[in-house]
Amino acid sequence: MAMTTKDSLDRAASTLRQHTDEGWIAIRADLFTRALAMFRPSAPVRGIHKAGEFFVAGDVLVAHLREALDAIPRAGATRITCTTDANHNLEAVTIEIVALYRAQLVPLAEAIRNRAAELFAQALGLPPEELQNVPIHIGVTDVTSNQLLL
């Protein structure tokens, strides 16, 4: 009879407990820490289409936004966060960027803000008047002369 993964884990846990309770406690804490670090579900973001409401994982929106922002010259996104309310409606977006030295920051931020608004309108089916209520914050966290970083 083949041994299953559960059987192997049960036998390993039993063996650890037989040797020392202190060792098991130390290993158990490490296992929980690793397990929590491996799986981090992102918050859902509510969207709407003709058939009704739907949810998109925040990490998926962030990944699509990061890809869309890669097309904007002279800047690169370093961190993007989406904030939702208790009903999972998009409440705010924060985009931290690194900008190329001598880039005009205000027009650059406006281009990033417009691209983000377009993407959220498409991805979530948000009408323009609703998007006007969602602030898109742009923060410049670094300025570089290295074009290879962007």
Give an overview of the whole structure.
- There is one protein chain.
- The chain has 150 residues and is an alpha+beta fold.
- Helix content is 46%, strand content 28%.
- The chain is built from 5 helices and 5 strands; from the N terminus they run ααββαββααβ.
- The chain has helices spanning 5-19, 21-38, 58-69, 105-124, 128-131, and strands at residues 44-49, 52-57, 75-84, 90-100, 136-144.
- The strands form 2 sheets. The chain has a 3-stranded mixed sheet with strand order 3-4-5, with helices on one face.
- A hairpin with a 2-residue loop joins strand 1 (44-49) and strand 2 (52-57).
- Helix 3 (58-69) crosses helix 4 (105-124).
- The protein is flat, with a radius of gyration of 23 Å.
- The N and C termini lie far apart (56 Å).
- The model has no long low-confidence stretch (mean pLDDT 84).
